[in-house]
């Protein structure tokens, strides 16, 4: 052991010299790590000693036992062959420095290990310091040119001071490289994140563009018919006014009014959709009794229901139903659901409107005796521009936007809306509003 010691550290009398910077008790250079909660891996630099001589391992550990860099000590691992070193690299991928012998189980075992580390493991961060006691087997100039090593030392010249220097220089380089790598990975993550965001926005734009085209196509189609009717009737009245009786002219005027109402309804719905999707619709939430609003909507549709010989019933079990919602949006929701029930009900049927109070919600149910809906149709019931198999039974106009608007309004008011239906058994639309707290209640 003494012979090997003299080979590696020939200046023994310098090992503990007072002016030796490696082992001075200088707090400014070697401040102890205070973060006791971190793992050993995070609080130390991992150093792998690969040599087939046990004395080399012991002496290296002994000389560098108190070494500290950037507040972290050294954590040593030992391998006595290239094969053992490969296993340790699998187990500890974050090794900072490798102190590597050349001649071990074979004359070039260390050099082959360098290729394994760099090429097979693709580890280009670890600093590899080649230490050899037999430089004839690995001439320095050839090895430096051919192999990706970071330093080449002859064991006979590697004093404690030189070991300190090469370890410090290697750790400084390794630390800088890891910092740069961390920045690079962070930038890659940011680029990937921004790329995903751009892709999502691009997909959204494509979808919006498709919807816009569909929007314009449907709007143009739905506006064309009533406009054509208005144009035709207006032209007829203008060119043949004297040929028609007063009663007939009033009939023409009524037809023009109906066509105009269809256009107004479509344009209103299109504007509502635009306001809702742009997030510009203003809601004023307050606690109020929904029952008077529901009664008003039901009363407003009594005449249209009678025109189709439909009975419109309201079933109430309590005197008031307090909800927390926007009054105007609530009226729009109830108006749409009740008008739809009448619109799609055959003549002579009944539409039931019920209101129920739950633990945390107030539920309104609008049930018709129409043709009902298949499950496949129910899944797209609240989509935009949905045209389903059931058609209005009295020739009423439908924009395909009403239920989409209903769902958006209800969800914005923190409620829920859905449909329960079976083919041939009618449909029940259910909307739940959050229960409102009356002043003084807990």
DSSP strand content:
15-25%
Instruction: State the order of secondary-structure elements, H for helix, E for strand.
Output: HEHEEHEHEHEHHEHHEEHEEHHEE
Placed side by side, the strands forming the largest sheet appear as 2-3-1-4-5-6
Helix proportion: 40-55%
- Give the CA-CA distance, first to last residue: 84 Å
- Main β-sheet description: 6 strands, mixed
Account of the protein in words:
It contains 12 helices and 13 strands. The N and C termini lie far apart (84 Å). Among the domains are: 157 residues, Rossmann fold, CATH 3.40.50.2300; 152 residues, 2-Layer Sandwich (Heat Shock Protein 90), CATH 3.30.565. Strand 10 and strand 11 form a beta hairpin. The chain is α/β, with parallel strands linked by helices and 442 residues long. It is elongated.
List the helices and strands and how they pair.
Layout: H1 2-8, E1 44-50, H2 54-63, E2 68-69, E3 72-79, H3 82-91, E4 97-101, H4 109-120, E5 127-132, H5 140-146, E6 151-154, H6 160-239, H7 246-277, E7 285-289, H8 291-300, H9 302-307, E8 311-315, E9 322-326, H10 327-343, E10 350-357, E11 361-367, H11 375-379, H12 402-412, E12 416-421, E13 427-434
Parallel strand pairs: 1-3, 1-4, 4-5, 5-6, 8-10
Antiparallel strand pairs: 2-3, 7-9, 10-11, 11-13, 12-13
At a glance:
The chain has 442 residues and is an alpha/beta fold. It has twelve helices and 13 strands. Among the domains are: 157 residues, Response regulator (Rossmann fold); 152 residues, Heat Shock Protein 90, CATH 3.30.565.10.
């Amino acid at each position: 052991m003494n012979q090997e010691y003299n080979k590696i550290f020939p200046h023994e009398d310098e090992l503990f010299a007072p002016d030796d910077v490696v082992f001075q008790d200088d707090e400014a250079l070697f401040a102890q790590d205070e973060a006791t909660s971190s793992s050993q891996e995070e609080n130390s630099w991992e150093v792998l000693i690969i040599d087939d001589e046990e004395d080399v391992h012991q002496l290296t550990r002994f000389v560098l036992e108190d070494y500290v860099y950037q507040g972290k000590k050294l954590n040593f691992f030992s391998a006595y062959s290239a094969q053992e070193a490969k296993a340790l690299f699998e187990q500890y991928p974050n090794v900072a420095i490798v102190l590597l012998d050349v001649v071990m189980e074979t004359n070039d075992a260390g050099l082959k290990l360098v290729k394994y580390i760099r090429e097979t493991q693709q580890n280009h961060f670890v600093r590899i310091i080649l230490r050899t006691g037999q430089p004839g087997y690995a001439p320095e100039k050839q090895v430096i040119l051919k192999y990706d090593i970071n330093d080449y030392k002859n064991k006979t010249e590697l004093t404690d001071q030189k070991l300190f220097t090469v370890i410090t220089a290697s750790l400084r380089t390794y630390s800088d490289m890891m910092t740069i790598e961390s920045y690079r990975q962070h930038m890659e993550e940011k680029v990937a994140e921004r790329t995903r965001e751009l892709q999502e926005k691009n997909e959204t734009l494509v979808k919006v563009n498709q919807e816009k085209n569909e929007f314009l196509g449907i709007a143009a189609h739905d506006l064309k018919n009533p406009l054509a009717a208005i144009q035709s009737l207006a032209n007829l009245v203008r060119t043949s006014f004297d040929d028609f009786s007063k009663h007939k002219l009033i009939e023409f005027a009524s037809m023009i009014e109906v066509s105009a109402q269809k256009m107004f309804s479509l344009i209103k719905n299109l504007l509502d959709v635009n306001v809702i999707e742009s997030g510009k619709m203003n809601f004023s939430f307050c606690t109020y009794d929904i029952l008077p609003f529901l009664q008003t909507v039901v009363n407003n549709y009594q005449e249209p229901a009678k025109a189709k010989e439909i009975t419109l019933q309201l079933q109430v079990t309590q005197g008031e139903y307090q909800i927390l919602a926007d009054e105007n949006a609530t009226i729009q929701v109830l108006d749409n659901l009740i008008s739809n029930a009448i619109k799609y009900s055959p003549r002579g049927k009944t539409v039931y409107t019920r209101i129920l109070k739950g633990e945390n919600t107030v539920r309104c149910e609008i049930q018709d005796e129409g043709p009902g809906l298949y499950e496949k149709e129910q899944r797209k019931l609240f989509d935009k521009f949905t045209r389903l198999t059931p058609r209005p039974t009295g020739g009423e106009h439908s924009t395909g936007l009403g239920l989409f608007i209903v769902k958006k309004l209800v969800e914005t008011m923190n409620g829920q809306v859905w449909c329960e239906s079976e083919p041939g058994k009618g449909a029940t639309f259910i909307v739940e509003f959050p229960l409102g707290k009356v002043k003084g209640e807990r």
